[in-house]
Design goal:
Helix content: 40-55%
Radius of gyration: 24 Å
Number of domains: 2
Strand content: 5-15%
Oligomer: single chain
Strand order of the largest sheet: 6-5-4-3-7-2-1-8
Order of helices and strands: HEEEEEEEHHHHHHEHH
Shape: elongated
Number of helices: 9
Distance between the termini: 52 Å
């Protein structure tokens, strides 16, 4: 007995994308649990949200927080030798360096200071409030989990995902056929160089703005050439979406910090701390967040519109773009017939 397929090709594609995201979410959750087990802390991954530890820890950095097996081993010394601790103060998570420690009852009280602050913190931290010790940081990429915890950030991400997933309905393909030819790999260069710029922040201690402007310019170039390089538009759209989520969102949020001086610690109402755990919900958003989001949108949305407009025009059969699509897949020399 033969079973006929009951799902259309488009529905199969949507199911494939959905399952892929489920797998990614599962891998991320599994990685979080593995880190939680290996580092021995409740929140092994946190994000720096203020500038108090600049340049040692920059705004938007992921930090890995490990448990302290013997509190007596905590090193207390001025920058750069003292251990960087994560601790609770009131209901806020703070990440500051331990500069001195003093005996207190049967334990220790730690005097802490942000590397970017002029003075030590106002009161010492008792060892019972110490969460753990920073063991590693990953620059900039922590902005993404913060961004999707905001209503506008989550809404923008879901809207772009919807456009990509339902591209066949929103941008019907009216061309006579696919261009064929070979993929011009050099067209991926702008998408390769921009994340390398972000990774360079491990080594750059001063303002990132010049490098981020370079990465943003490269991304805009990629938004022009990518729709003309891919034969399978679904692949091109998914590639663009992943690059936007993993690279452009952190890039744009960090540019807001350098341009407007608005850190994620100002995105939500309340006093806030200098770091937050990677969890789902935070407080109500502040007016400063709206200013920050508007600056972010002004920075990146023109590139999104450029990418989708070129993709839609090509799929509608606009002749100059169709010709460029065929020529680009045959040769990078667009003067060649």
């Amino acid at each position: 007995m033969r079973w006929e397929p009951i799902l259309s090709e488009s529905l199969k594609d949507y199911a494939k994308y959905f399952l892929f995201f489920i797998v990614l979410a599962g891998v991320a959750w599994g990685g979080f649990l593995a880190l939680k087990s290996s580092l021995g802390t409740q929140y092994p991954v946190m994000v720096v949200v203020s500038q108090s530890m600049v340049p040692t820890l920059n705004v938007g950095d992921f930090i890995l927080v490990g448990s302290i097996s013997d509190i007596d081993d905590v090193v207390a010394a001025p920058q750069p030798d003292g251990d960087i601790l994560v601790f609770l103060r009131s209901d806020d998570y703070i990440v500051h360096r331990t500069v001195r420690k003093e005996p207190y009852d049967d334990g220790w009280a730690f005097v802490t200071k942000g590397d970017n602050n002029n003075m030590e913190d106002g009161r010492a931290v008792l060892e019972d409030y110490v969460i753990g010790r920073v063991v590693r940081n990953i620059p900039v990429f922590g902005y993404f989990p913060l961004f999707i915890k905001t209503t506008r950030g989550l809404g923008l991400t879901l809207a772009l995902m919807a456009v990509v997933f339902f591209a066949d309905n929103l941008m019907p393909d009216r061309r006579g056929g696919l261009p064929g030819g070979s993929f011009p790999w050099l067209t991926l260069l702008p998408f390769t160089l921009s994340p390398l710029v972000l990774f360079s922040f491990w080594f750059v201690q001063d303002s990132h703005l010049e490098l981020e402007l370079l990465a943003l310019a490269l991304w805009y170039v990629g938004c022009v050439v990518a729709p003309l390089a891919f034969e399978d538009d679904d692949t091109g759209l998914m590639f663009w979406l992943y690059h936007f989520v993993l690279t452009v969102i952190p890039l744009g949020c960090d540019m807001v910090w350098w341009i407007k001086g608005i850190t994620p610690s100002m995105w939500w109402l309340g006093d806030g701390g200098s770091t937050v755990p990677v969890t789902w919900l935070l407080q109500k958003e502040s007016p400063l967040y709206i200013t920050a989001f508007n600056q972010f949108a002004l920075t990146v949305l023109p590139g999104c519109l450029l990418f989708f407009c070129i993709t839609a025009a090509k799929r509608r059969g606009v002749e100059p773009l169709v010709v460029l699509n065929h020529r680009l897949r045959r040769s990078l020399d667009l003067t060649q017939v």
